[in-house]
């Protein structure tokens, strides 16, 4: 079997792969996209980091490819959907970078507080500017952490060791769970108003993109420090520049940018900004950890069929996987759907399996798929089929499952009820034929709809002309409707309209839809 390593990987990982007699390992870190498309058909496994772009075109040319393995967390450089359709397992190594990224955050915080990079540069220029680089103590200052997952928790622990007051906001973790960490749970508005330092530790999602923007900066105290070692784009770079120029932000420490490497970036021209070239995971220990982990995972899968840390397949036998595959897809999509329509931190998840699906000997992989679907919009690539239950437990989410062998309307059915700190919803879906995934219920509304692509869920009063007005509004903005399904509760005079559009519906169009008579709620979904 042939293994291609197309990005820089610690030698220990390469040696472990080469130690397998059945493997022929090639390391080529200078391939162009066109060259990768040409040669990928020869390989059974592709090992990458962040540089290689595994596009749909690459995957379509991968005749033999069985696994794409990422040494690290982020998978935004892999077309996971295309890989899944081809039956290619996509793996990452989510645990290897936690400590090193958290430590880098603390290092950036201290360097920012004491002007260490600027003072070093001054000294090397032959100057002695002691008064110019007077800094700030972090003792007794308030650190606001946005996103208190695994990295955020380590940052909190280290900051408490520095005797900082730590507050945190995370919409997907209940206040009780955060408070048990010795951290004060607050709202985002309260965090912005109170924090002397603000650090972000969230994945890049639709909700977190430009989360720290001009409106957020206006709510901060003057003299705040901003740290971003998570993902470029969570902090709006132009708005950060303006906030520094206006004196709201006293300094910023950035390890990540929207475009990497940044070119002629105005932030880098400011003395109050310190920056590193995405070094959050760049320690000897972290590189060694992820290299060995990814090598072990590739070996286990190619030799034994054992799947670990896959984002698109659970760790089960290949024969069982083939049988379960449609149900796994249904469970994950239903989980993602119920999370996207239900605001607040998940507290309780109940999964019911009805009919033929109950004949599956072990339903645990399906429940894990539900959890992965629910957690992925919150955590991005950090969550996979192995660690989803752990993430749920860490967030204090209660998970139950039940079965009912006697089917009613459908031969098989998966229902998910989710209660959060703010709301509760129930969704249900089935498999039509052998593999067609369908949504058949949202709360009391019955419908039959595919779950894929750019989706819009609209709650409206059931009156003549409403559906026409919605279509006219979208058409006016050149947004084509490729699917529409309507669910009714006649006794309440209410509808839900489930649409799929060829292109995403932007926020200004959402507001226009909400302004229509009899339209109550508009939710944008991605599945």
TrEMBL record:
Listed name of the protein: D-3-phosphoglycerate dehydrogenase
Describe its function. Answer: Catalyzes the reversible oxidation of 3-phospho-D-glycerate to 3-phosphonooxypyruvate, the first step of the phosphorylated L-serine biosynthesis pathway. Also catalyzes the reversible oxidation of 2-hydroxyglutarate to 2-oxoglutarate.
Q: Which SUPFAM superfamilies match?
A: ACT-like, Formate/glycerate dehydrogenase catalytic domain-like, NAD(P)-binding Rossmann-fold domains, Serine metabolism enzymes domain
What range(s) does the ACT domain occupy? Answer: 455-527
Pathway field: Amino-acid biosynthesis; L-serine biosynthesis; L-serine from 3-phospho-D-glycerate: step 1/3
Concerning Pfam families, the annotation shows:
2-Hacid_dh (PF00389), 2-Hacid_dh_C (PF02826), ACT (PF01842), PGDH_inter (PF19304)
**Which family does this protein fall into?**
Belongs to the D-isomer specific 2-hydroxyacid dehydrogenase family.
Keywords assigned by UniProt, alphabetized: Amino-acid biosynthesis, NAD, Oxidoreductase, Serine biosynthesis
Q: What is its EC number?
A: 1.1.1.95
Q: What Gene3D superfamilies does this protein map onto?
A: 3.30.70.260, D-3-phosphoglycerate dehydrogenase, domain 3, NAD(P)-binding Rossmann-like Domain
Q: What GO MF annotations does this protein's record show?
A: NAD binding; phosphoglycerate dehydrogenase activity
Q: Which reaction does it catalyse?
A: (R)-2-hydroxyglutarate + NAD(+) = 2-oxoglutarate + NADH + H(+); (2R)-3-phosphoglycerate + NAD(+) = 3-phosphooxypyruvate + NADH + H(+)
């Amino acid at each position: 079997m042939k293994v291609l390593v197309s990005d820089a990987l610690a030698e220990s990982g390469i040696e472990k792969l080469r130690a397998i007699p059945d493997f022929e390992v090639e390391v080529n870190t200078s391939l162009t996209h066109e060259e990768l498309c040409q040669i990928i058909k020869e390989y059974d496994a592709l090992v990458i980091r962040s540089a290689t772009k595994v596009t749909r075109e690459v995957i379509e040319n991968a005749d033999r490819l069985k696994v794409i393995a990422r040494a690290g967390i982020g998978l935004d450089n892999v077309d996971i959907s295309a890989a899944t359709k081809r039956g290619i397992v996509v793996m990452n190594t989510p645990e290897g970078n936690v400590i090193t990224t958290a430590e880098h955050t603390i290092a950036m915080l201290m360097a920012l507080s004491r002007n260490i990079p600027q003072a070093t540069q001054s000294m090397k220029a032959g100057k002695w500017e002691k008064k110019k680089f007077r800094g700030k103590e972090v003792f007794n200052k308030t650190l606001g952490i946005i996103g208190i997952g695994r990295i955020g928790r380590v940052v909190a622990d280290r900051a408490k060791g520095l005797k900082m007051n730590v507050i945190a906001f995370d919409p997907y973790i209940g206040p009780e769970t955060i408070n048990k960490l010795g951290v004060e749970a607050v709202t985002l508005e309260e965090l912005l108003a109170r924090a002397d330092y603000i650090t972000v530790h969230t994945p890049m999602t639709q909700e977190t993109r430009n989360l720290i923007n001009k409106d957020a900066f206006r709510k901060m105290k003057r003299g705040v420090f901003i740290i971003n070692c998570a993902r470029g784009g969570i902090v709006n770079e132009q708005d950060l520049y303006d906030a520094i120029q206006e004196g709201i932000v006293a300094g910023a420490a950035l390890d990540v940018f929207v475009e990497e490497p940044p070119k002629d970036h105005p932030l880098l021209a400011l003395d109050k900004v310190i920056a590193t070239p995405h070094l959050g995971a760049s320690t000897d220990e972290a590189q060694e950890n992820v290299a060995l982990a990814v090598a072990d995972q590739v070996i286990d899968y190619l030799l034994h069929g054992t799947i670990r840390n896959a984002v698109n397949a659970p760790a089960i036998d290949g024969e069982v996987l083939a049988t379960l595959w449609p149900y796994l897809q249904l469970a994950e999509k239903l989980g993602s759907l119920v999370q996207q329509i239900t605001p607040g931190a998940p507290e309780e998840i109940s999964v019911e399996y009805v009919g033929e699906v109950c004949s599956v000997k072990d339903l645990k992989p399906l429940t894990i798929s539900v959890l992965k679907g629910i957690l992925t919009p919150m955590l991005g690539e950090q969550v996979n089929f192995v660690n989803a239950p752990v993430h749920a437990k860490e967030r204090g989410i209660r998970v139950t499952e039940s079965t009912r062998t006697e089917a009613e309307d459908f031969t098989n059915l998966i229902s998910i009820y989710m209660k959060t700190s703010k709301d509760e919803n129930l969704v249900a879906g089935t498999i039509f034929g052998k593999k067609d995934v369908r949504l058949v219920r949202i709360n009391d509304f019955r419908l039959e709809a595919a779950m894929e692509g750019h989706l819009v869920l609209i709650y409206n009063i059931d009156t003549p002309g409403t559906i026409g007005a919605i279509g006219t509004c979208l058409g006016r903005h050149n947004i084509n409707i490729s699917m529409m399904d309507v669910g009714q509760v006649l006794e309440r005079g209410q509808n839900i309209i489930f649409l799929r559009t060829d292109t995403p519906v932007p926020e200004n169009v959402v507001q226009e839809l909400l302004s229509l008579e009899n339209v109550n709620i508009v939710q944008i979904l991605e599945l």
